[in-house]
Prior knowledge:
With 429 residues, the chain is an alpha/beta fold. It has helices at 11-17, 26-42, 44-55, 66-75, 78-96, 135-148, 167-176, 186-195, 212-221, 246-257, 272-286, 292-302, 311-321, 333-336, 354-359, 395-411, 415-422; strands spanning 2-5, 103-108, 111-119, 122-126, 152-156, 180-182, 205-207, 226-227, 235-240, 264-269, 304-307, 325-329, 345-348, 385-393. The chain is built from 17 helices and 14 strands.
Amino acid sequence: MDITNVSSIEESLINDKLNRTEADFDQIDARVKEIINDVKNFGDEALKKFTEKFDGAQLTTLKVSQAEIDAAYESIDEEFINVLQEAKQNIIDFHQAQLEKSWLNYKNDGIILGQKVTPLDRIGVYVPGGKAAYPSTVLMTVLPAVVAGVNEIALVSPPDKDGNVHPYVLAAAKIAGVQEIYRVGGAQAIAALAYGTETIRPVDKIVGPGNIYVARAKKYVFGTVDIDMIAGPSEVCIIADEKQNPVFIAADLLSQAEHDEMAASILVTNSTELATAVQKEVENQLAKLERKDIARQSIDQYGQIFVVDTLDEAFNVANIIAPEHLELLVADPFANLSKVKHAGAIFLGPYAPEPLGDYFAGPNHTLPTSGTARFSSPLGTYDFLKRSSVIFYNQEELEKVKNQVVHFANEEGLGAHANSIQVRFNCEV
Length: 429
């Protein structure tokens, strides 16, 4: 894990150190488009073909039965079920605070302006398989939609070689209230959700993380459906002063590194002594990890320690990075919170580590990655709501402003717009 001294804020240096951008998506995009077009043209047949090719499973049916969901739930030990239930309630409580309400503003007796808030009709949730099972993703993507009032939720997840979706995913789906589940993953699952097949009806929005093929497929279908974000590799940035515990910091950096080989774990500190101690502690802890091979590649390629002169400079570095997760391990994190401009989720103090947010605290763990926290937000209840403007004028109020509207329309050369106003008052065009 490299240590880099940053005497002044050098944005190019920071970005070069953390560059995880794929050089060329052309080959991936070409393959994704082929898969999507096959699903559009051949429906269920294409889904089964690609599932056999990529997942090694020969499917007779795409939909997971209620009996399978119930059996998966019964197979999970009661203690973990209780943990999922408690996490569910925390997530619901947090996301209920995000609910928006319709409103009307009565300017006077003749004008009413407002906004009507309506939940989406039907959404699709993608839950990854592969390197690990992700029941937390089920809860974090489904429950905000439930809180928002979405009536139909279709969940897709890649099966194992026997054609089974992971029991943890099915149990979490049951707890979250999802009954429509399909054993299909990859770009083909995104295509099915966007365009529909004989078995899977199309949705209005697709949410949930996935591999690069899933991410590129989501980008391709955007416009036909809405999407949450184009998620990239995960990252954590920790700002720490000289008084912090290097054992805690190393553990938090490695909790991110074990996600995948392209995950980035970053420490920014004003203490060379702490930087050196953390560097050594990362090596000590890494050797003991079950997923040490993945974490090793992540740390070697994208692990980084920046040493700066002051904590103010540390916040400047973090704002350049715009991390998915930002931990503030400083003497008074609340006093420094205003210095954070760009971050997906902010964890304050030594006893609010990033995994707390991943699983249990309640705020969503579907967060903007790869610097997109500069302009985007965590997944939330608001992502499953749409807003319609409401406008009412009576005759008297419209007559007061008719000349202004006609003038505006004529200046834009749109005579029919002007006429729409004038005909109501028997005016000449």
